[in-house]
Amino acid sequence: MTALVILLILVLVVIILIQVGKVNELASKIRGEEEAEQQSNNRTALFCLLFLIGFMIYCVYTGFIYKDIVLWYGPHISASEHGGRIDHLFNVTLFWTGIVFVLTHVLLFWFSYKYRSQKGVNQAYITHNNTIEYLWTGIPALVLVYLVAAGLDVWNDVMPDVDPNDDDYIEIEAVGQQYQWEIRYPGEDGKLGTRNYKLIDPATNNIGMDFTDEKTHDDLIISGDFYLPVGQKVRVRITSKDVLHNFYLPHHRVKMDAIPGLPTYFIFTPSILTADYRKRLKGHPDWEVPAEADEPDGPKRWEAFDYELACAELCGKGHYSMRRVLKVVSQREYDQWLKDQKSFYLTNIRNTEGDPFKGQLVKAEIASRSKDFLAAVEQAVSTPEDVSDDLINLEHVFYQTGSAQLRDDSKYELDNVVSVLNKYKTVAIELGGHTDSTGNAGANQVLSQSRAESVRNYLIQKGIPATRLQAVGFGPEKPVDTNDTDEGRQNNRRTEMRILTNNI
Amino acid sequence: MADIITVDRDDVLLKKEGFDDHFHDHHHEDKYKSNFISHYIFSMDHKMIARQFLITGMLWAIIGAGMSIIFRLQLGFPDESLAWLKPLLGKWITINTETGMGSLQPEFYYALVTMHGTIIVFFVLTAGLSGTFSNLLIPLQLGARDMASPFLNMLSYWFFFMASVVMFYSLFLSTGPFSGGWTAYPPLSALPQASMGSGTGMTLWTISLVLFVVSVLLGGINYITTVLNLRTKGMTFWRMPLTIWAFFVTAILGLLSFPVLASGFFLLMCDRGLGTSFYLSEIFIQGSALDFAGGSPVLYQHLFWFLGHPEVYIIILPAMGLVSEVMAVHARKPIFGYKFMVYSILAIGFLSFIVWAHHMFMSGVNPFISNFFVVFTLIIAVPSAIKVFNWIATLYKGDLRLNTPMLFSIGFVSMFISGGLTGVFLGNSAIDIQQHDTYFVVAHFHIVMGIAAFFGMFAGVYHWYPKMFGRFMNETLGKIHFWATLIGAYAIFWPMHYLGLAGVPRRYYRFDSFDAFGSFGEMNMFITIAAIVVFFAQLLMVINFFYSMYYGKKMTTKNPWGATTLEWTTPIKAGHGNWPGKLPTVHRWPYDYGKDGKDFISQLEPMAEGETEAH
């Protein structure tokens, strides 16, 4: 309804203006055209002058009131190392173009006013002046040469790829799709594994990682916010699944198209912690308002500030919604966060239909197990009075069916035990064999004993003194799970290691 | 008093000095006059074709600008109901049954943005501007009877008309018109799965633009041939008005660059229809992996911008030409540095071909290559600066008639400065890292090639309206139109610089999905209101245009502005063939205003004893 009223008012205004136009034309006929023209000329000249003044004031005034929202006059300085140079270049360009802008506008409208047609004043006949032409060709040319040189200097420092021999950077990957970003981290090995778009399955493998490449096994797909350590050079590998996107971090002055089939990159070093950037915003009136309008007592805008990743290349109807949050944190926080991330392969793919290594051990798993095992032992050793954590299940020790013969793939777990015992020279352990409750209890007892023995023998063979090792067979006596299901029985058949003492 | 018939000195000179090409002006048996269809529709008279281009261009301008109002409403008032637009937009407005809130479909928002760009760039500022004034002025200002090939010239309009019909039809498709941006980057434009508008909408879009390319080529080859071959006696290159220089270089640019666009579209059509992989590679979309392999979307961008950048000069050069001419006439002073003006047109024309990749700094091209494009891009600012300084110097010590065409010329210079200077930022690739695809770019190109080109066009329309229709447009309305547009255009686009500097990306349907972009609601509202006001100011001009055609002040003398150029020596209602008798003979350059104490000296006037040509 209001829209209709506004529309009607506008139409009315148009009609009135047309009538005014007609009346003016008639009036000037009556008054004498020449005189009317002279009057209108003077009036228009004055308008030109007023426009000039108004326009210049408007430019300065808006520049002043908006200085805090634009990216590098208020609190919004660049959050990356290279960004400051871009901002500086912007300011240099603004300085020179600003001079030209003001000068030409003043002359343009001042001349329009000053040289309006007036009775008794004739125009001068000036056709050209080559000296002045050379002057105003030469000076802009010089300024532009300077701007080109300054610009290319920055450009050629920011854009080149990393030296492949350097290893002082971390590489992450951003994959655009309609309408979200997938972020991948390389995991322990520091290398992103191969991808193949033909392997993409939105349900299980959304970016098409090729799991036959072991480099993918420790790769992390980040859900939620992604983290980067401050002061660390980052190479973002940017690519797309479907149409063009653009990896855009406005606060970091980072922008690069994501192209299907043609990976691009951008290298930058985050220089301001998210927390520090928030502090910069604190105190600015725009940022001291509640972040959510309907929660007046909630956090202030500056408290809720985060670096945002956006898309800056039209990619379809959802283009405006491809948001991810980047947290820039200290190296320590980053390491902690990284530790909490789980390998995509090990959590989602391992031993499913899509796992090319189903039933075989993979390096990532071994490495991850080794880390967990070490952590468990450390925990136990550091708290000698607490016995609850002294019992550690050797999850990856397996035997041939019905025999005490160790399977080959048990050696990874056992080598972990060896390295732990080599590390803590004063630790003595008990190796406990367990079976499920099926079959003859006596036979189970014997089997568990001999299984524990064979683990002990393996360790002795690896140079661990026999005095530090005891082997005990418990048979089915100490189940940790029910014996009524396959899974439960599987859990009950196990080999455990107990830390007897850390003080021999 | 104004109706007293005087014998013009022009007529005397034409009779005495004119060049007799044995033209027979068959007033009584002229078929062109007797038949409505051949006179008004399938006309081969360049003056009629010019008017056809102009009026078609105006219709498209209203549609294109109207679209911008709708998407500005979405951006300025994202939480207001647009249900009242339902009768116009139909299913593209969805109404929430609970709240009654009508909202614009994002698909259609993007279709509007795309169509706005396509229509304004190609149909309004290429066909409507260069088509109109090249047709009107090239034969008239050169002293030619018509174009070199009036028939091709007619075809040029009708191909444009066909392109228009196809594009207009695509607006009503059930899947909507093309919505992937006016640049139509694949894969978005190549895959119907990627966007609703990339299906039939895109097919019609490409067909329409290929027809349009044909139109431009037919027109362009005609303009070039006419300028080269049909200049009248005495009309040397250095005596051509700057309008003609501008149209001439524009036509050459079009002839060299539009075929590249057509071939780019052809490859795109192959990818769309024949399963080739020119632009596509390794794509997984809508649940399936496509077979395309080895293509590069960047190739399309090269082909597109190889046209795309000259295209912005195809738009702005004619405006520059018109402004130079209008400014000299109404300043009653020669254009300052005529030869430098010509050289800068030539330099801009040449350089426009080697700067295209500055649109692609952030597109994944090798950063090393960008170095060259930065250099050439910033060099092109030099001839542009020369032109600006020359225009300002033209005003210096003039005898300025501040009427509507003159005001629009001055406004053009202001816009060209404001928009041109931001180009110095964007052309520097390092700054472009941050500014690319933000509102800073939107502000830049709208001011420098949108508003500025419109200002040039308006200057031309108000100035040559008497030549086209034998009447004047209303001055008061013209001035209101000017001030509303000048102030309004700055009100729309100036704040966009700040939006861009705040990092807000262009082509966003809403801003509130991001904390960084969502806090400029008031500014967006202000921009939208300004856009609506400016839109209505343009309607005022359209009304003035059609009203004056029938009721405007009549033209009583052949040369109301006291101009030196040849178009004002033809009869007020010139027939096909322009001059009833002999063709004019040219004796001097077109800018003898205020020479030797005379207000102006027509190009027909022989040089006086001992007089020298000034430039």
Describe this protein's structure.
The complex is a heterodimer of chains A (504) and B (615). With 504 residues, chain A is of the alpha+beta class. Chain A folds into 3 domains: 23-117 and 130-158, no CATH class; 169-349, Cupredoxins -  blue copper proteins (Immunoglobulin-like, Sandwich), CATH 2.60.40; 363-501, 60s Ribosomal Protein L30, Chain: A (2-Layer Sandwich), CATH 3.30.1330.60. In chain A, 42% of the residues lie in helices and 16% in strands. Chain A has helices spanning 2-31, 33-65, 83-114, 130-158, 274-281, 301-304, 331-340, 344-349, 363-382, 411-423, 441-461, 486-492; strands at residues 169-177, 180-185, 220-222, 226-229, 233-240, 245-249, 254-258, 264-268, 307-311, 324-329, 391-393, 428-434, 469-473, 494-501. The mean pLDDT of chain A is 89. Chain B has 615 residues and is mainly α. Chain B has a single domain (9-597), classed as Cytochrome c oxidase-like, subunit I domain (Cytochrome C Oxidase, Chain A), CATH 1.20.210.10. Chain B is built from 18 helices and 4 strands. In chain B, the strands form 2 sheets. Chain B has a two-stranded antiparallel ribbon with strand order 1-2. In chain B, helix 11 packs antiparallel against helix 13 (381-395). The two termini of chain B are 39 Å apart. The mean pLDDT of chain B is 92. Classes of the chains: A alpha+beta (504), B mainly alpha (615). The interface between A and B is large, with 122 and 131 residues.
**What order do the helices and strands of chain B follow?**
HHHHHEEHHHHEEHHHHHHHHH
* Largest Cβ-defined interface: A-B, 122 and 131 residues
Total tally of structural domains of chain B: 1
Q: Report the C-alpha radius of gyration of chain B, rounded.
A: 25 Å
Number of alpha- plus pi-helical segments of chain B: 18
CATH homologous superfamily grouping of chain B: Cytochrome c oxidase-like, subunit I domain
As for the number of domains of chain A, it is 3
Q: Assign the structural class of chain A, choosing from mainly alpha, mainly beta, alpha/beta, alpha+beta, or little secondary structure.
A: alpha+beta
Secondary-structure content class of chain B: mainly alpha
CATH topology-level fold name of chain B: Cytochrome C Oxidase, Chain A
Total DSSP helices of chain A: 12
Report the count of strand segments of chain A: 14
The outline of chain B comes out as globular
| Corresponding CATH architecture of the largest domain in chain A | Sandwich
**Sheet of most strands of chain B:** 2 strands, antiparallel
Instruction: Provide the CATH top-level class of chain B.
Output: Mainly Alpha
Q: Characterize the quaternary organization of these chains.
A: heterodimer
**Parts with pLDDT < 50 across at least 5 consecutive residues of chain A:** none
The CATH superfamily of the largest domain in chain A appears as Cupredoxins -  blue copper proteins
What is the first-to-last residue Cα distance of chain A?
90 Å
